Amino acid sequence: MLWLWFWDAYFARPESWAVEIADAGDADELAHIHAGAFARGWSIDEMEQLLRDRSVVACALRREGRRQVLGFALSRVAEDEAEVLSIAVAAERRGAGGGKALLGRHLGRLAGQGVRRVVLEVDEDNEPALALYRAFGFEQVGRRKAYYARADGKRGSARVMALEMA
Ligand SMILES: CC(C)(COP(=O)(O)OP(=O)(O)OC[C@H]1O[C@@H](n2cnc3c(N)ncnc32)[C@H](O)[C@@H]1OP(=O)(O)O)[C@@H](O)C(=O)NCCC(=O)NCCS
User: Fold this and answer.
1) Is 24 close to ligand 1, i.e. is its CB under 6 Å away?
2) Share of the chain above pLDDT 70, in %
3) Domain limits for position 40
4) Structural domain count, the chain
């Protein structure tokens, strides 16, 4: 799997981060991280439903050799296209390479399942996320005005980004 090797070698610092498939048993930890990252969190039940959905690929980020989940990435796959539904790293663990390790391994999993195009939406003011996506070659392909409800009651616009992995 060329993608997996590439991102591991150059970005993922594989000696310290482990990225594995998440399952329904991880729902509470993933919901907790999601609630800490987004204005509208997903309940444990909602998270569990996604983790049981066979069209959803879910990855959990951990420190090598530790059980605690520190981040997650969730994508829905339809034929050779995937949409990143959500990605987050626990607030106190950000800025240490976990996001890159997580997204790199997640994209590798998707590529291994035959995905050739990955799309996502991101708040256009979310600089850390935009930098992360750009680092992997995502490019803007559209914009959705006033798409997000923010905690302060205002609305934020979304960039639609895509990555061609073929
Ligand atoms: C986006 C997110 C997953 C990145 O996770 P992370 O563990 O901090 O990411 P990394 O440490 O691997 O950093 C990845 C890149 O993001 C950028 N970045 C990280 N923190 C940043 C910050 N505070 N400001 C600007 N860019 C930042 C950098 O380009 C960094 O690469 P570099 O270290 O090689 O320069 C994390 O910030 C997060 O969970 N945010 C809340 C949830 C969210 O917004 N998800 C995206 C929804 S579309």
Assistant:
1) no
2) 91
3) 2-117
4) 1
